Structures are given as structure tokens and as C-alpha cells.
Amino acid sequence: MKLRHLILLSYGSALLFVMIIVFFSVKYMIFQTDIAYIVTVIMVTACTFGFILSYLLFLPTFRSIRKLSSHSHKLAEGRFEKITDIRSPKELAELSEDFNYMTGQLEESFNQIKKSEDEKRTMISQLSHDIKTPVTSIRSQIEAILDQMVSEEERPLYLESIQNQAMRLSELTDKLFELTITQENKKQKPTIKKVWIDKLLVAALNSFQVQLKAENRGITIDLDEKMSFIYSDEEGVNRILHNLIANALKYSPPGTPIEIKGTAKDDAIQMSIRDSGMGIPEEEQKHIFERLYRVEKSRNQKFGGNGLGLYISQEIAKTLGGNITVQSRLGEGSTFTVHLPRALS
């Protein structure tokens, strides 16, 4: 029942109650008939004017309730509009503020969900392309070999190309697996232990020894004496270093050096990995840690980038209480710096 109907019912009930009392008073000779008529007229008049006055006083409340009801329906339809003109009564004004806060929270959550869904669609599309391209290449080259369209002199080149495409598929599979692990680990508390930075760095570089030798790479390491160890998640720190070193090798030409520098403060450490590659445009730098974001897509196709490594590394760094920053200039290379606390609480 609407509020206006409740007001009308309350005044009508009061009037009916008074009339019943007057009727029994006349019947049992408590009131005289003429006095009863006068009382009845007075009561009817008083109730009528009382109802009109109450209705006028309640008009702002009625309007506020209608606005709240209208906005709640709009909210249910996905239109996140805020209420700006409810000032009375005070209780409804406070309720409208709570409603606006709820609307803002719902809109933010809705936008985050929409962004996540858009990212998933983009990820599926890009990964499908990343998988389809090497698979198509492998298939066509194998068919050419089986159909004896490739000479003996060309066969080693075809086999090397097949091997490279297979390695791209393997790398993509590893990154997807790593992404899954990272998302799962975000829900769990990291395992904290004493992590020796020099040993971890040596272990990370050992996995690239074949590539470093084949590309005639020089590695320069400069670690601050104060950063011998930290208390953190060893596997997480190792994955960050591995991904950043792999990124430096991928996007810099063979024969150029990789520089690794570590500095320590009272409560944090910094590990910088610098390459002499192509560099990253300034307008792109704020996006490179986004999932599947690719700097200049044509160059990523050339080098086989999939936009997952830096995203994964940044997510791990945040889980460990730190972050990764980048400094880069076109034609001069890039420096990625991971900032981590000395002790993860």
C-alpha cells in the first residue's frame, strides 16, 4: 500500500472511530442529538483539513520516494545514474547518498567485469592467432618436404624453421602455464624464506648459457654488498629475474651486452636489467605491463612476443610487495628495474 493511501486510511479510521463513539453516545443518552451533530461535523472538517495539510507536508517525501523507485529501476536495467536533488526529509536524503555510493560501487564493479571480459576475448583472439601462425607454418613446410618439393640443400633450412616454430609454441605454452600458476598463487600467501640474491641470479643466468654463448653475449653484473639476501618467495623472485633476462635477450640484437645492477636500501632492494635493444616508445611504456599488450605489433611478430612475460612478472612483483618499472629510449635500449622489500610481511 502506498504511503498516501496509508495517511488517508489513518484519517478515515480516526473519523470512523469518532463517529462510532458519537453514535453510541447518542444512543445511550450521553450526548444530545444536536451536540452529536456538531461534534460529527467538527470531526469531519478537522479530519479533512488534517488530511489535506498532511498530504501537502508529505509531498516532498512522496516525490523523493518516487525518485528512489525510478532510479532503482534504472539501476536494475544497467543505467548507473545518481540522484542529485533529494534534500528532504533528512532520512531520505541520507538514503539517497547511500544509494549513490552503492551505484558508484556497482558501476565500478560492472566496468571491471566488462574490462575483464574484453581482455579475455582479446586474449583468446590473440592466442588463437599466435598458435595458428606457427602451426600453419609447420604444416606447410612438412607437407613441402613430404611432397619432395624441397631439395636436399634446402631441407636443413626447412627443419631449422620448423624447430623455431615449435620453440615458439613451446614458449607460448610455458607462458600460459606460468600465467595460470600466477593467478592461482595470488589467492595464496607466498612462502617466505631467506633468498640469496647472488645464487638466485647465477641460477637464472645458467638457464641461458647456451643462448648467451651462441649469440656471443657479454654479461656485466654489479651487486651492492648490502643486498646479499632478502626474505621473500624464492620461486617468485626467480621467475621475475628469468622473465626479465629473457625479455632483454629477445629484444636486443646478438653480440650486445646485458647489464645487471643491484642496489640496496634499509628496507628494499632494486635489481636493474639493461639491454641495448630497440627501446620502447614513451607513449607505450605505461601499457607494457598489461596482459597481452604488444609494443608495435609488427615488431612483436618478428621477435615472437606474446605480451605475457612482463604482465606475469609485474603480477608476481606486486604479490611480493614490490613492482617493476621501466626506463627506455628508442634506439638506446631499455632498463627494467624490479623493486622488492627486504622482508615480505
TrEMBL record:
User: What InterPro entries does this protein map onto?
Assistant: BphY/WalK/GraS-like (IPR050351), HAMP_dom (IPR003660), HATPase_C_sf (IPR036890), HATPase_dom (IPR003594), His_kinase_dom (IPR005467), HisK_dim/P_dom (IPR003661), HisK_dim/P_sf (IPR036097), Sig_transdc_His_kin-like_C (IPR004358)
Q: What is its main location?
A: membrane
Reactions catalysed according to its record: ATP + protein L-histidine = ADP + protein N-phospho-L-histidine
Keyword Cell membrane, does the record have it? yes
What is its subcellular localisation?
Cell membrane
**Mode of membrane association:** Multi-pass membrane protein
Top-level division of the source organism's lineage: Bacteria
Per the database record, which ranges form the Histidine kinase domain?
A: 126-344
In terms of Pfam families, this protein maps to: HAMP, HATPase_c, HisKA
- Which keywords accompany this UniProt record? ATP-binding, Cell membrane, Kinase, Membrane, Nucleotide-binding, Phosphoprotein, Transferase, Transmembrane, Transmembrane helix, Two-component regulatory system
Report domain HAMP positions: 59-111
Question: What EC numbers are recorded for this enzyme?
Answer: 2.7.13.3
Q: Name one GO cellular component term.
A: plasma membrane
Entry's Gene Ontology molecular function annotations: ATP binding; phosphoprotein phosphatase activity; phosphorelay sensor kinase activity
Say which enzyme class the record assigns: transferase
Tell me which Gene Ontology terms the entry assigns under biological process: cellular response to phosphate starvation
Annotated TM spans: 7-30, 36-58
The protein, known as: histidine kinase
